[in-house]
Amino acid sequence: xxxxKLEKVVSLxxxxxxxxxxxxIEICLPVGIGQxxxxxxxxxxxxxRPLPRGDHLFRIGDPFQCLYAVRSGSLKTYATSExxxxxxxxxxxPGELIGLDAIAxxxxxxxxxxxxxxxxxxxxxxDLESLGTQLPSLQHQLLRIMSKEIxxxxxxxxxxxxxxxxERLASFLISLxxxxxxxxFSAHQxxxxxxxxDIGNYLGLALETVSRLxxxxxxxxLLRVDRKHIELIDxxxxxxxxxxxxxxxxxxxxxxxxxxxxxxxx
Amino acid sequence: xxxxKLEKVVSLxxxxxxxxxxxxIEICLPVGIGQxxxxxxxxxxxxxRPLPRGDHLFRIGDPFQCLYAVRSGSLKTYATSExxxxxxxxxxxPGELIGLDAIAxxxxxxxxxxxxxxxxxxxxxxDLESLGTQLPSLQHQLLRIMSKEIxxxxxxxxxxxxxxxxERLASFLISLxxxxxxxxFSAHQxxxxxxxxDIGNYLGLALETVSRLxxxxxxxxLLRVDRKHIELIDxxxxxxxxxxxxxxxxxxxxxxxxxxxxxxxx
DNA sequence: CGATGACTTGACTGCTGTCAACGTGCGTGG
DNA sequence: CCACGCACGTTGACAGCAGTCAAGTCATCG
Lengths: 266, 266
Known about the structure:
The structure is a homodimer.
Chain A: H1 12-15, H2 35-44, E1 46-47, E2 56-58, E3 66-72, E4 75-80, E5 86-92, E6 97-98, E7 111-114, E8 119-124, H3 125-134, H4 136-162, H5 165-182, E9 189-191, H6 196-203, H7 207-219, E10 223-226, E11 229-232, H8 235-242
Antiparallel strand pairs in A: 1-8, 2-7, 3-6, 3-8, 4-5, 4-7, 9-11, 10-11
Helix pairs in contact in A: 3-4, 5-8, 6-7
Chain B binds a DNA duplex through residues 164-165, 195-197, 205-212, 214-215, 227, 257-262, 265.
């Protein structure tokens, strides 16, 4: 995957940005690590040439060697069922770590594919773990990131298990918006790098439903859609529609849809 | 579940089983840890008196101090939405660790409630982390467990996002069965410690649907149900119905239901 | 033995999936 | 430059799975 077609003259030197200079330093691993320790972390990280759209970072069953941090661009991770059906498990933006689910068994349970031209930091896990034994704060940070991943997954379970199609898409858009905010992008305007089909698959909806909902949201003045470009016009109301946590993770609002709300007991 | 009505005179002394003597040692943290190291781990673990059914181990928002290992009995973890709606996130059997999702933020995002009389090992996280810096294999084991948790959550996302009601319940039963096997219990016969409502909530189904499916499965000769007692008669066929991974986590079988299978692309 | 809660069963409804046709944008090749 | 193909997206018609509502049964317990 790393090597594919050199394209242009992207000299490796240009890509070699140290952790300390990376704008994602607040999001990625290094939080709370001192300067000299940061350099040690930096030294084990490998930065490959950008991955063109559609290329795999790794495939299902690939042996686990590294964790990957997204530096720019985006990827989707997905599993495939026996019959070749694809199940999108997540979309990954700059600053996010991929491959945490592979530590346990030694191979990747999911595949990761670039949704656009994407550059990656490769972190050899063995080295990271060794370094972790020497740097408790790094170790702690790693545990925190994994814990956060678990928490996020739990949040996704709620969305998939209990929410209506409308709430799912609204939640998805708000969540994306929040993630963009964190990266210094506009909260109200962004481009989707994934297809309607990917979104639907991820949210457990048919792609037609996603398309219809985009149209409905637009008609209701919640947002404007033009192909991949999304403009959130009434973010507040979209939060209401999402029936849940709005800004960065605080709960909000209730919901009263008919279906998909089985719980009511105990 | 192993114990159903333990009650009697469970003196605290009886419960004080060292890690090394615990029958769950293969499942819980200590895998791959040497004898003397095991004693050190043992020394930081606190074993409380059993939790009666319905009691909380912790509640949402409780400050995070400890991880908890189930020693006997079972619990459910759940979140509550603003309007008091409960969302069951998981059921936890002996040997499983609870609270991993609390490391990141310092408080518990979920509540944990005993489904029956349940005993617990309390592991102060701070101590565990310190010990981890001294015992790389312990540290590694902790990472593996968290990674597995992430992997399991991903599996749940597939079930919730893509599967029909029938497949969900079948998956749930097979998964339970597998977990019982791992603990040395019968794969074909067990007692559910949770209510139909809990199951439905967990699977994103109405409790009526769960009830109907139990009936249908029974009519089709897949299993026998009597209140909480389940006997899997045709485990193989139930696997087929689950449309996925059957034994311990290996993929299997296909599915061809009509609804709930939006993905089909790319 | 009645109260309570858990579970079952039936009737009905509707959200959302499936199927299908049609637009739209983009790249390729003539 | 245009025709063409192709992938992606939109929209409509229809149907079915599973939710809601409601009534009834069963078990446990005081």
